[in-house]
Amino acid sequence: MAQETDEQVVLPEYLRRTYTWAYLDPRNMRWLDRHVVVSFILWGNADRLMASAYREFSAGQEVLQPACVYGPFSRELSAVVGPTGYLEVRDIAPVQIAHTRPKLAGLSNTHLVRANAADPVGRDFDGVCCFFLLHEIPDDWKVRAVNSLLAAVRPGGKAVFVDYHKPLPYHPLKPIMFGVFKTLEPYAMGLWDVEISDFAEERDAFTWTKETFFGGLYQKVVAVRR
Prior knowledge:
Blueprint: E1 3-6, H1 13-24, H2 26-32, H3 35-41, H4 46-54, E2 62-65, H5 73-81, E3 86-91, H6 94-100, E4 110-114, E5 125-131, H7 139-151, E6 153-164, H8 174-183, E7 206-213, E8 218-225
Parallel strand pairs: 1-4, 2-3, 2-5, 3-4, 5-6
Antiparallel strand pairs: 6-8, 7-8
Helix pairs in contact: 1-2
């Protein structure tokens, strides 16, 4: 059984205003949290992006996932670190914690925590896996979250950020994604013109690499603490 901790965290107003439909309404969550829906939203790239994130971690590691993820992501990441490892899944929304709980049933190596990714983590990890969180938070929160997560990485450990990225100039989906971001994902454009590494106050304490996918629409940024 996955262990669980509930900290006192206040839901930010931007989350209520912008994402109630996607993350706070249990009726919508039931159909959004389907792998086929996640794959559709990511234009068929969900499996590829998830697999790319998993490859950055290994059995026996202690890993932090700073937000719940729709689909099988958390359970599969738990399998990567294995029974000798530890996965801590955090989220700021109680409804997301409650929704994720049954998906992690029976996983003794996994711990659910209600917490704000922009707050200090309070302990360190071998790795941090931040999967499609940054595009959902305002730019000032991006700065706070990136720095809080990097601060939780042990020497030699890594933080992995998988998220949206500015596509190539003539990408056929660029106009569509621009419209989606303007109407449904207003904070995603903050990743189009700013490198994730630029949010880091201790940038030089890490070695940074970036890989893009699907014509530049998605990115994986890995920061390894020196």
